[in-house]
Amino acid sequence: MWYLQHKRDLPWRNTKDPYRIWLSEIMLQQTRVAQGLPYYERFLKAFPTIKELATTSEDKILKLWQGLGYYSRARNLYATANYIWNERNGKFPSNYKELLTLKGVGDYTASAIASICYDEKQAVVDGNVYRVLSRVFGISTPINSTAGIKEFKSLAQLLIDGRQPGTYNQAIMEFGARHCTPQNPDCGSCIFSDRCIALKKDMVGQLPVKIKKLKIKKRYFNYIVILSEEGKTVLKQRTKKGIWQQLYEFPLVETEAEVDEIELKEIQTFNEVSEGYNIESLVLYNEASVVHKLSHQHLYTRFWIATLSEENQKNGNRIENEIPIARVRDYAVPVLIENFISDFSVFKI
After folding, report:
1. Residues that are catalytic
2. Is 40 exposed, middle or buried (0-12, 13-18, 19+ CB in 10 A)?
3. I need a labelling partner for 304 at 20 to 30 A (CA). Which of 11, 63, 145, 250 fits?
4. CB 172 within 8 Å of CB 132
5. H-state helical runs in the chain
6. Is the distance from CB of 322 to CB of 231 less than 8 angstroms?
7. Segment 76-123, tens digit of pLDDT
8. What is the CATH number of the domain that holds 276?
9. Number of domains the chain contains
10. Is 141 domain-assigned?
11. Range of 52's domain?
12. Is the pTM here over 0.70, yes or no?
């Protein structure tokens, strides 16, 4: 009853189309609904069916995904769309076990699609569900431990309503997102207040338990923003595995710590960039590093504006990876670089 009275009117709750449910679940992994909703709507406008998604380019998907983070989700989305369209004639798997074989689909996503689209009795367990179950049942097993993952999945599976599994799954996730919140939940008006063990034992703030993550790694990025008199710059695609794979960025010099201009010019990687593009002058754009926080690392970033030698430009030498400044916004870039592009006057065309 709580869910029927309090649920938000979200577009993926008005359909059982597995394509639309899959798209929403992939987008909402590690993403708040308020942030993910505009992306979901833009994707559906661009790719109303899996055919359009499978037959577009990965670059276009990454561009639309720009700013949503965790870009491996977008690459998996494209790979799975291609597989379903080309190998399964556009038909989604219709049960939990087969859904698990799709790239980028784990227990949570497979359970959500199977229960919502096919009424299969498969319980979802996400951050919201962990929080509700750990508090109501007073479970202190770490939710990111092997034992905890197994324990919470088993409990969720016992509790799920076999008659309306999809509705039940959405209800418990909604309750966790809107009522049993991480901070300052409204326990006084909670429908579980008479049976919540965490409330009775004054442990609401301590549950759920999560094993602390590894120490955050600090990295120091120096982006060399190349500008030519012909109105061109340079963007290179990150092809190696790691953060931002397949996205574009300015030539990068990574250092062990923050460096000044003299120190930067002593680094071999910078010299390779400088010689490759015949850089003549270099000016630091931001004295204070931009700190970009990812889940497992913090990036301390400076942007250096580089102009090319007159000889290079007079001779009309072609610059590798050069693009017109007017086309910079056509490329999928990390939000860190997108913010710089928006701020730097040269790119405001």
Report:
1. 25
2. buried
3. 63
4. yes
5. 2-6, 18-27, 33-46, 50-54, 58-65, 72-87, 96-99, 107-118, 127-136, 146-159, 165-178, 197-200, 261-265, 268-277, 310-314, 335-343
6. no
7. 999 999 999 999 999 999 999 999 999 999 999 999 999 999 999 999
8. 3.90.79.10
9. 2
10. no
11. 2-122
12. yes
